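Appendix C. Worked example: BTG1 protein
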Amino acid sequence: TPAGAAMRTEISTAAAFVTRLLRAAGGIGEEQLRCFRECLQEALREHYKHHWFPMVPSKGSGYRCIRINHKMDPLIGKAAGMIGLSHERLFQLLPSELTLWVDPFEVSYRIGEDGSICVLYESPQPGGKTTKPLESRTSCKEEWRIGRSSPSKNYNMMTVSS
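Step 2, the predicted output written as structure tokens:
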């Protein structure tokens, strides 16, 4: 599909970023990570199929937002389930608060509620619209590593057994 081709770079950037966070946390094999990345890309492609508007990039942004905040994002959870990672394990490996915006021409993220928004991928929009200046990009380059070093908060999780 044309939309599928159009969002390939943005989706692969987002999936690679989450995979990098898992790799940095350690304890997951490369083959599992590769499988996770492919499963996440497929889940994102499917989820965004009818919610991708290159002419109005901000339209549908909330729908395409990937979020971990006391609850695991279902798309990340689904991809992790494919390689046998539980939600509990994911909460140990990933930042407890992560927001990832996957929009046409831009993928950005924020770790923590008050963190800086960092751009992972940006390309000029067709039609010559200029995008935001990139000064902020350098200050964020290694932030995802630093964000991980702060002690993770312990949340009491309720589990429901069937």
